[in-house]
C-alpha cells in the first residue's frame, strides 16, 4: 500500500520592494549618485584612498603629522595629482 506524501508549500513572506529612503548605496555606484541628488546634506562617495566625490567635485583629505589637509577640486585628475604631491611630501 502506497502512502501519500504531504505537498504543503513552505510559508514565505510576500515580496516587498525596499524603501528607497532607507536603502544605503554602495560606494561609487549609480545608486549612490542618485541618492546624493535627493539628499540635502553633502554625501561623499569614496573614489580611492583619500579621495571622495560629492556629485560635482572631488575632495582630497590627507592627514600629515596629525594635521588634516582637505581641499576640493573640479576634476579627478587634479585631485589625484594633489594627493600624490601630498603623500610624496609626507616622507
Helices, strands, pairings?
Blueprint: H1 30-38, E1 45-48, E2 51-53, E3 58-64, E4 67-73, H2 76-90
Antiparallel strand pairs: 1-2, 2-3, 3-4
Report the principal-axis shape: elongated
Order of helices and strands: HEEEEH
Strand adjacency order, main sheet? 1-2-3-4
Quote the beta fraction: 15-25%
Q: In whole angstroms, how far apart are the ends?
A: 84 Å
Alpha-carbon Rg, integer: 24 Å
Largest sheet: 4 strands, antiparallel
Low-pLDDT runs: none
Helix content: 25-40%
Index terms:
alpha+beta; four-stranded antiparallel beta sheet; 91 residues; single chain; 2 helices
Summarize the model shown.
By secondary structure, the protein is of the alpha+beta class. Helices cover 26% and strands 23% of the residues.
Verbal overview:
- This protein is α+β, with helices and mostly antiparallel strands and 91 residues long.
- It has a domain at 42-90.
- The protein is 26% helix and 23% strand.
- The chain has two helices and four strands.
- It has a four-stranded antiparallel β-sheet, with helices on one face.
- A hairpin with a 2-residue loop joins strand 3 (58-64) and strand 4.
- The chain is elongated and about 85 Å long.
- It starts with 29 loop residues before the first helix and ends with a helix.
- 7% of the residues are buried.
- The mean pLDDT is 78.
